[in-house]
Write a structure and sequence with these properties.
Layout: E1 5-6, E2 18-21, H1 25-36, E3 41-44, E4 56-59, E5 62-65, E6 71-72, H2 80-89, E7 95-97, E8 101-106, E9 111-115, H3 118-128, H4 133-158, H5 161-179, H6 183-188, H7 194-200, H8 216-225, E10 230-233, H9 238-250, E11 254-257, E12 261-267, E13 270-276, E14 281-283, E15 286-289, H10 293-298, H11 307-311, E16 322-330, E17 343-346, H12 352-359, E18 370-373, H13 375-378, H14 382-386, E19 390-398, H15 416-436, E20 444-450, H16 452-459, E21 490-492, H17 502-517, H18 521-524
Parallel strand pairs: 1-11, 2-3, 2-15, 3-11, 8-17, 15-21
Antiparallel strand pairs: 4-5, 6-10, 7-10, 8-9, 12-13, 13-14, 16-19, 16-20, 17-18, 18-19
Helix pairs in contact: 1-9, 1-17, 4-5, 4-8, 4-17
């Protein structure tokens, strides 16, 4: 496991071409691409580990990812996602291919397997719902129509602003046909079969909104992403930041942890650097914020006179809900426990919107979903450091308001009431997990629950958001969600600029670097 350099005030004496706030994959990708084009970059991370949602944590022999559970397309060497990753890691990042059955959607009456490749996926759906063949064929076609329409939409975001404004109506018209509609509206035009709707939208947790609230474009991005199979980073998700940081350092860049930024320094409407929590100012002509749009406009630009107009943008977006994650460790290998790599999506019923509405009543309500992932089974290199042990993660939705009573208490040292709530939630999740994975129960050795407060402490999301801002139809109409900002020299990157997911966050880094360099990096890949 790679160790990270800690922040030192001596960095104020060094010269950098660009400062990147936040080491999530969007920031790391931006930094790597700029470094490859001769820019000296500095990546500042407030946490004690690099990687954002790609980092991992350990408890003895156990190790868990915190946000990366499976990635599509990267097993195909000529796919766009794979080319970006190979570029920013010097082809050092390797991928472990998951089973063809990448997801299992489970309801009280039966389960449905999502199996690659796409032709098998379609045939299985038709076997499950033979009377809905026409609807399924049309649905599959729609997934690809959305992908084609999205290309000019995202290209428009990185054009010079004057040109982007001029071409905006023409480049985005087709995409808005899909992004303006909810997932529920689009699919119910094809079928009135509620079971089929529930199955097709069984991955809604990958973007955070149920069908009546989510943009169909976001649903289509996720569903299409896995049709030809899924993968996991070999050596766990921390290998992503480790390989990208190696490339950045090889090209003269620096990455430091425990480096909290207090403010983006703006003079004469131009970003000129950052002020650290210790008071030091680090100067650079380019500042890239990978801290999310809410943190950027709400926290990091507080002293900027023009902040009010930029802060007003936030009135048009909504933060996503948060989550709780139960990290489980077992004293037996994944192979011996027969875990497999298939993710489980466990639902109380087919109506996802109703499930979410009921669950929103409070922490004692029935969970709207429990997603179960098996990282130790997915990682081909797991046994190298963890032989004889296995891990599992079980995730469900939560709401920030349920945890605010403990907000002022320190991480890992909150009171007995907080621990009692965690214990209650842990037991409820375990009941569901062991109903579907009963062979693991007697080998459970460690259980640790993270809450929205954990996300707030470690990922610096003010409301414990899981996915930044919601992927509703309204979100895709926000033209300001692009690399450029109203402050010269200040750029945005990360999932808020593109969409949720590892590949999309990497794509955002490509967009941001293209905008800064005034160069079409898409073509070179």
């Amino acid at each position: 496991m790679k160790s990270w350099n800690k922040y030192s005030s001596s960095l104020a004496d060094e010269t950098f071409d660009a400062i990147i706030i936040g080491s999530g994959i969007g920031g790391l990708c931006s930094a790597a691409l700029l470094a490859l084009h001769g820019k000296r970059v500095l990546v500042l991370e407030k946490h004690f580990k690099l990687g954002g949602w790609t980092h991992t944590f350990r408890r003895g022999k156990y190790e868990w990812d915190v946000g990366i559970h499976y990635i599509g397309e990267v097993h195909k060497k000529h796919s766009f996602a794979r080319r970006i990753f190979d570029c920013i890691t010097d082809s050092q990042l390797q991928w472990s291919k998951m089973d063809d059955n990448y997801d299992r959607i489970i309801f009280p009456d039966r389960s449905y397997d999502f199996v690659a490749p796409r032709q098998r996926f379609k045939e299985d759906l038709i076997d499950y719902f033979p009377q809905e063949e026409a609807a399924i064929v049309t649905y599959m076609d729609l997934l690809y129509q959305v992908a084609l329409a999205a290309r000019p939409y995202f290209t428009n975001k990185v054009m010079p602003r004057w040109l982007g404004n001029l071409t905006y109506p023409f480049m985005n018209r087709k995409f808005y046909k899909y992004s303006d509609r909810t997932t529920h509206d689009m699919i119910t035009e094809l079928t009135n079969n509620e079971q089929l709707l529930g199955v097709l939208t069984g991955q809604w947790g990958d973007h955070g909104l149920p069908p009546r609230k989510s943009s169909f474009a976001m649903h289509a991005f996720v569903a299409r992403h896995y049709l030809d199979g899924a993968n996991y980073p070999t050596g766990s998700s921390r290998s992503i930041a480790e390989t990208v940081s190696d490339l950045i350092e090889a090209h003269g860049g620096k990455l430091v942890v425990k480096a909290g930024v207090e403010e983006i320094v703006v003079k004469n409407d131009r970003a000129v650097g950052v002020r650290m929590e210790g008071g030091e100012e680090l100067i650079a002509p380019i500042v890239i914020s990978n801290a999310g749009v809410v943190n950027t406009f709400d926290r990091l630009l507080q002293e900027y006179p023009g902040r009010s107009s930029m802060h007003g943008y936030l009135d048009n977006v909504v933060p996503t809900a948060s989550h709780i994650c139960l990290h489980l460790g077992f004293k037996k290998s994944a192979r011996n426990l027969d875990f497999g790599t298939t993710n489980l999506w466990i639902y109380p019923g087919y109506d996802h919107d109703q499930n979410v509405a009921e669950a929103s009543k409070g922490p004692d309500a029935e969970f709207p979903v429990v997603y179960v992932s098996f990282p130790s089974a997915k990682d081909e290199a797991w046994d190298k450091d963890h032989e004889g042990y296995a891990t599992m993660e079980a995730i469900t939705m939560a709401h920030w308001d349920w945890y605010t009573d403990w907000l002022g208490q320190p991480w890992k040292n909150r009171d007995e009431d907080y621990e009692a709530l965690k214990k209650k939630l842990t037991d409820r999740i375990l009941d569901i997990v062991f109903k579907h994975v009963p062979q693991a129960k007697e080998h459970l050795d460690h259980a640790e629950l993270s809450t929205p407060l954990t996300v707030n402490d470690l990922a610096n999301y003010s409301l414990g958001e899981m996915y930044g801002i919601e992927h509703s139809p309204q979100r895709f109409r926000q033209r300001w969600l692009q690399p450029y900002t109203d402050v010269k020299g200040l750029f945005l990157t990360g999932q808020d600029v593109a969409t949720v997911g590892l590949s999309s966050a990497v794509f955002s880094g490509l967009m941001t670097a293209s905008a800064i360099l005034k160069k079409n990096l898409f073509k070179s890949l």
